[in-house]
Design a protein that fits this description.
The protein contains 20 helices and eleven strands. The protein is an alpha/beta fold. Strands 3-2-1-4-9-6-10 form a seven-stranded mixed sheet, sandwiched between helices. Helix 4 links the parallel strand 1 and strand 2. Helix 3 packs across helix 14. The protein starts with a helix and ends in a 12-residue tail after the last helix. The relative contact order is 0.13.
Length: 610
Amino acid sequence: MMTDDYFLKFEHRVPPPPLPYSTLREGIWQFLATVALVVGGWYIWWRWTGSLNPDAMWFAVPLALAETCAYFGMLLFVFNLWKDEPVKIEKPPAALGDVAPNHPESDRPIAVDVMFATYDEDPELVRLGIQDAKRMTYPYPIDVRIHILDDGRRADMRQVTEEEGVNYISRMTNEGFKAGNLRNAMEETHGDFLVIFDADTRPFPTLLEHTLGYFRDPKMAWVQTPQWFYDLPEGERLPEKLAQKFGARGSAFGRAVEKVIGPVTVGDDPFVNDPKMFYDIIQRRRNWVNASFCCGAGSIHRREAVMEAALRSFGKKVEERTWAVEETITVSSKEREVAPELMQAIKTEAAATEVLTPYKFHVSEDIYTSIVLHSDNERGWKSKMHPIVESKMLSPQDLVTWTVQRFKYAGGSLDILVNDNPLFRKGLSFPQRLMYATTFYSYLAPLWNVIFLFAPVLYLLTGLSPVSAYSTNFFLHLIPFLVTLELAIMVGTWGVDGYPAKASYLSFFPLGLRAIWTIMRGEKVSFKVTPKTRQSGTFLSLVRPQIAVVVLTVLGVLWAIGALIFGDTSHSASGVLANTLWGLNNCIAMAGIISSAMWQPTENEEGQSI
């Protein structure tokens, strides 16, 4: 059960404001990004044409290929971040006619269905969301109906809904998991708009007032709001942390360090859960090409768009199923046509067999449904990433929960890439295809990141070099690329600390490889509800590959230095220095997830009991 004390400790926290728009910064970012792309292309060309070690091509070629793959990912990422838009809140609509111009009931108040999808979460946690939803305000009369979609079919959850005066919806099976739960609820509700929340979502009063204005555009299908985890551990300042272990001397050392490099916080956001980089940078900068996708909780949907896309998809699948049966019959009977009565029976059977799915039955139903709507070029549906946080949620508080969540994201996205690739889906514009390609391509990165992690280890332990020489020419090509790239990304993501996300991206490689292997083997990515309570204990067994990277890198550095000092070796001083710095960067990236496996909440952060 959740304890009230846990939530009370975080109630005072407020979300950060959206990053401000700056025309000057946009110009600087686009200039630096262009320079970085040109310098990076020059570097990659040189890597293939002038740097490969002919005596170790088995090592040189895979590393150059990994660098090329990473450069292509950089191209996609730059396109994703290319353009931002000013923060603007649209005027809220007063009546249905403002969002549906030709509707026969244009004068009636807008009806909104607020849906909390739940399975096995604590009913008291859901109660908090219900109470916050009841506090939502709006400048005009509006019909807001709150529904609890309980796939757990629990008596205590029904009791909470009765006590709070909201609607309880359940079903006999769990077909389609969350997507099926939403479909069932849509059959029992009639609102013009749907607001989708998870069990732990707690909306702010302004959510509807700040978002419904986007729907004045009759082509606006959905609006996604940023997700904000209000219970992220704030950590401790370095002097206080060292004082706990080493007393006054530790505190003095911590203060000395902070005088040199500034304030240092230990243990804040140990699992890199803060989604500001994703929502305020990546998603928000997709608006200009209408490619921001739905992320589930905190999204608002036009019912007409969801149902119309579902009906189109349903009709297409019925036709495909009918054609397949017709082809089988004509081939086996050697008749050119099937009798009209039989064709009607085939169509009826196909329609009865096919399932109407407003939200795709998929572990990543949100992005899947986004692709379906974006590709409906007959209606030209639009999406919007709203820049302001309008709700709060609970963050994953242990490495097991983090692993479940990240594997679901990776496996679900890769499953879409393999089985319904949006790059070849009719209806999407070329910029939209590139934006979706950026998302899916990022989940392939472990294939080359693992090479980046172990390449310096191989050189340090063996002296085998992937380049012809660690010469001045090598550094003259490498360093300008690294510097221009870092400067460009720093300006493009100004206002958000980018290093934790980059480190997490690199240390994600074992989980990413497992997701890739799962999809390659044709296995289905199972749907698991992300735990909302902290799992007890430490989880070093989950980070053995990352520990191996650190141990092997340290051993490699010691071995290479010893070889330079005491032995006849093929190592060079410049090669050892370059690979030591490279390996050190890898170790720092791995250290974050290794420390998260051992992280325990402080007394002030403790609260979620099992």
